[in-house]
Amino acid sequence: MTISYNKLWKLLIDRRMKKVDLQKLAGVSSATITKLSKDQTVNTGVLIRICEVLKCDTADIMEMVDETSPSYLGVVS
Hints:
The chain is built from 4 helices and 2 strands; from the N terminus they run βααααβ.
């Protein structure tokens, strides 16, 4: 299993926000935004700050995915 932040990027698109906007509003570093972009782990406190800014729950910005599943690999059945 691996972490995916695709939900976060879709949420930003829906809200017409850029990553830099989120960075400033949540008070996180550009390195943290890079980690999120690469689906790397980040501190829970960072995720909470992001959720507070976006007024959402962690399940709205991230999910655990099976890296062996066809949908994760981009295979359409």
